[in-house]
Amino acid sequence: MLRGELGEAKQFAMEIVSKVGDAVGADELVPIKSAHVLAHYSSLHDAGVEVLEHFANSGGRFAVPTSVDPASIDLQNWKTFGIPEDYARQQFRLCDAYAKMGGMRCWTCAQYQVCNFPKEGDVVAWAESSAVVFANSVLGSRSNKITAGMDIACAILGLTPRFGMLLDENRQARVVFELDLKGITDLDYRSIGFFIGRNAEARVPSIVGLPSPVTSDQIKHLGAGAAAAGPVTMIHFPGITLGSKTVADATGGEKVEEIEITRSSLGDVEFDLNQTSEFPDLVAFGVPHLSVNELGELARLIDGRKLKKGVKMYAYTSSQAYDMAERTGISATIERTGARITHSTDAEISPLKALGFNTVLTNSAKLAEIVSSEGEIRVGYASQKEIVEKVTS
Amino acid sequence: MKPWLRRGKGLIMGSARGEALVSLRAFTFAHGVDPSTGVVTDVRSDVRGMNVKGKILFYPFGKGSTTASSWFLETVRLGNNPAAVVTEAVDLSAVIGSVMARIVYGKVIPVMSEIPHTDYVGLKSGDKIFLDAERDEVRAEG
């Protein structure tokens, strides 16, 4: 393959995948059942546009069902959000390259809730740190945290190197987090995740003491917080995670460090992430994307209220959930308050500064982490209920 | 005093010489390094405000977004990349970023792992470092 008899894109892909495989000591390349890739301008930059277009223009076609993370703009309504034309043009170059390679037009970071459904035991090659946690912890499929460039290469080959989280011996829990908490809020799930990401280091964690039942949305946000704060790619939820009925299954019966999570641990996370109590000019919900259930919860919470002057409220979601919210009246309820639902994009990868936002308020630990990392926008971190009370009347 | 020398595991081959930039916390290029300057912007980084350009960059492990390798590659495109990367646990984004840098822009950026961050304590940012990934070795130079 390396000599190019399969065409330039496949050769380029094989060069990337085999060099990465060699670097990490993979013994072979194995087939994947699906891929999830990245094609948003804010993070791929001009280098990423060059790479993606090279793949697409030299014959690259996805060998397996492939979904994609959100774009840097709302692909349908971008003009009404004030996105500059030249910025949109760069994003559409990526969209065109992605479409040319045959990807599903499913631009979301919660693909496992709407369009990409691997089964137990399936090997996949997914980008999107929060989705990798979900795949390994809830779906029972296996994925390494495939990063930009390699993601497209794996999708084109339908192969990924066998190493890391594909191997049984690397999937055992090496640290257990014990919750000692009552009355867990939406914010707490995110903060618990962030605390785990901060303290697990490079070990696979397990968690005990979560209320039961826990929803896929709650796990989605917990996993996203963990992946934002550290290198976490899997969390054992005893009773949910494949092969881990109990915490002893998760650890393989081995004695591992136990770390308690108390109200005071979460207070520390909130103190770290909540960097301003200023009145925001943007409220952002949905990093990762809200499900239609979560849009419904938001609608019930803000029904009959009005957004105060000087603040915008965006709820970020997948195109599928957006359509369903339109059909069920959820959108109408949310938009009557002055808030908007936006799809196929997400807050952390959209040009917030260029759109004139200086202070963002969110209940997403992942968004709070990322926005403050770039250091240009001040960020507040609070529960959805507190936020709604602050910015509506 | 004995010179600082550690053996780890060479992942991306090559050698590099440069000043150390030592972080003891989880590190990411995604949203955390400005590719147009090489300056670390991440407020949670202990090397915020420092520049990765031409440095031997040490950090224990990665964190966050899978876009990190494209942020890494953009620093390469703009000539603001580190000279080499040393970690404790394999950070796939550094490995992939370096592989892409070699193929797309012809730049060799060696990557090593398996050097525990507790060992970075003998180093400080600015120390002169020589790294030889082929020999699995990184050392401080006089």
Describe this structure in words.
The complex is a heterodimer of chains A (393) and B (142). With 393 residues, chain A is α/β, with parallel strands linked by helices. Chain A has helices at 8-23, 41-57, 85-100, 111-114, 129-139, 150-157, 186-199, 216-229, 247-251, 263-273, 292-302, 319-327, 330-336, 365-374, 384-391; strands at residues 29-31, 35-37, 66-68, 125-126, 159-161, 175-179, 205-208, 257-261, 282-290, 312-317, 340-343, 359-362, 378-381. Chain A folds into 3 domains: 8-168, Aconitase, domain 3 (2-Layer Sandwich); 172-271, no CATH class; 274-391, Aconitase, domain 3 (2-Layer Sandwich), CATH 3.30.499.10. In chain A, strand 12, helix 14 and strand 13 (378-381) form a beta-alpha-beta unit. Residues 1-6 of chain A have low confidence and may be disordered. Chain B is built from 2 helices and 10 strands. Chain B has an 8-stranded mixed sheet with strand order 1-10-9-3-6-7-8-2, with helices on one face. In chain B, 17% of the residues lie in helices and 27% in strands.
Describe the secondary structure blueprint for this structure.
The complex is a heterodimer of chains A (393) and B (142).
Chain A: H1 8-23, E1 29-31, E2 35-37, H2 41-57, E3 66-68, H3 85-100, H4 111-114, E4 125-126, H5 129-139, H6 150-157, E5 159-161, E6 175-179, H7 186-199, E7 205-208, H8 216-229, H9 247-251, E8 257-261, H10 263-273, E9 282-290, H11 292-302, E10 312-317, H12 319-327, H13 330-336, E11 340-343, E12 359-362, H14 365-374, E13 378-381, H15 384-391
Parallel strand pairs in A: 2-3, 2-4, 6-7, 6-8, 9-10, 9-12, 10-11, 12-13
Antiparallel strand pairs in A: 1-5
Helix pairs in contact in A: 1-2, 1-6, 2-3, 5-8, 7-8, 7-10, 8-14, 11-13
Chain B: E1 5-7, E2 9-12, E3 15-22, E4 33-34, E5 39-40, E6 56-59, H1 68-77, E7 84-87, H2 92-105, E8 111-113, E9 128-132, E10 137-140
Parallel strand pairs in B: 3-6, 6-7, 7-8
Antiparallel strand pairs in B: 1-10, 2-8, 3-9, 4-5, 9-10
